[in-house]
Design a protein that fits this description.
363 residues, alpha/beta, Aspartate Aminotransferase, domain 1, Aspartate Aminotransferase, domain 2, four-stranded antiparallel β-sheet, 13 strands, globular, binds pyridoxal-5'-phosphate
């Protein structure tokens, strides 16, 4: 008998999401559990997006606009590109899948950084695409020089998370432009910048301003983090119009709901929510950077909305102790970081409670 699924599906280890609040409360008989596990926006969704979704909810019996006409135009203006260069997705995760499906064959290799965002590896494997993972360099940084050297005639696509998840580290504009200069034009470079709106490092650049000179470059962004719309599923890619046209052929016609399109339009206007999100995040990163080393934690320099901390002890056990006290974080033992937990920045009160509970456990 032939196997039910191909080997690459049989051996696929699925994505492990952050544990939901409700499930944790049920399992441990707790109330008021805090989730600092999925880099969600601690301020909640953009209030203007919530209002916009309420306003269109009566029209949800109709199929959405398959072209997302208004949102595409607004986003294009927002990032200063042509509407033909914008592709929307049900989260940027859908765009990762679409890029792999559209531009690679099972003979093509996908180049990744080991320990970085696991969705790239999972999507590659789910499509039966071979992938090569290059180790990070000292300091949990992408080793772009080694990655450029690892490109072979089989390499078709490279994924870069900048800032990276789960490490929070970032690489500079110089490093990115040097990498792009070393990459053959037929290799697609996907610059996943899910956290770019949080970066305050002057040497950082989004890939969006470079897309014009690099027809093989794709910038991926999301409404899940800065706009607080992770539950709505809305992401976008900015790229050469020729690449975008191919994605429009392969994507599902109604990949964006009526609610997502309305939410996106309103969230882009909600500059106050974005400003407050950045402010709360900055304060939270500073707070963790001051407090966690006093508890024996070693932090990377995070440019995102979470910290990546080594407490010098097995992370899974620490994660479980935190769960029992009502704090959900994320251990990364499965991805080669046995002692690291990732803690998302919460509200000031949530951050303080997290530090308090860590203090109880660690001292
Ligand atoms: C959170 C995150 C995303 C966003 O995924 P969505 O599907 O848009 O919610 C993409 N890439 C990285 C590296 C992330 O951490």
């Amino acid at each position: 008998m032939r196997p039910l699924v191909p080997t690459h599906v049989e051996t696929l280890k699925p994505y492990v999401p952050g544990k939901p609040i409700e499930e944790t409360e049920r399992e441990f008989g707790l109330k008021g559990v805090i989730k600092l596990a999925s880099n969600e926006n601690p301020l909640g969704p953009s209030p203007r997006a919530v209002e916009a979704m309420r306003n269109v909810s009566g029209a949800t019996h109709l199929y959405p606009d398959a072209t997302s006409f208004h949102l595409v135009r607004k986003l294009a203006a927002h990032v200063d590109v042509k509407p033909e260069q914008v592709v929307l997705g049900s989260g940027s995760n859908e765009l990762i899948e679409l890029l792999i499906r559209t531009f690679t064959t099972p003979e093509d290799e996908i180049l990744l950084c080991q320990g970085s965002f696991s969705a790239y590896r999972i999507s590659a494997q789910a499509h039966g695409r071979p992938f090569v993972e290059m180790p990070m360099r000292e300091g949990f940084l992408y080793d772009l020089e080694a990655m450029a050297k690892a490109i072979t005639p089989r390499t078709r696509m490279v994924f870069l998370a900048n800032p990276d998840n789960p490490t929070g580290t970032a690489f500079s504009r110089d490093a990115l432009t040097r990498f792009l200069a070393a990459v053959p034009p037929e290799v697609l470079v996907v610059h996943d910048e899910a956290y770019c709106e949080f970066v305050e490092w002057p040497e950082y650049t989004s890939a969006v301003p470079l897309v014009g000179q690099h027809p093989n470059l794709v910038a991926l962004r999301t409404f899940s983090k800065i706009h607080g719309l992770a539950g709505v599923r809305l992401g976008y890619g900015i790229m050469d119009a020729r690449l975008a046209a191919y994605l429009h052929r392969t994507r599902m016609p109604f990949n964006l709901t009526v609610l997502a399109q309305a939410a996106g339009l309103a969230a882009l206007e909600d500059t106050e929510h974005v400003r407050r999100t950045r402010e709360v995040n900055r304060a939270g990163l500073d707070y963790f950077a001051a407090e966690l080393p006093m508890l024996g934690g070693t932090l990377t320099h995070s440019h995102a909305n979470f910290v990546f901390v080594d407490f010098g002890r097995p992370a899974v056990a620490l994660y479980e102790q935190l769960l029992r006290k009502g704090i959900i974080v994320r251990p990364f033992a499965g991805q080669g970081f046995p002692n690291h937990v990732r803690i998302s920045v919460g509200t000031p009160a949530e951050n303080a409670r997290c530090v308090q509970v860590l203090k109880e456990i660690l001292t």
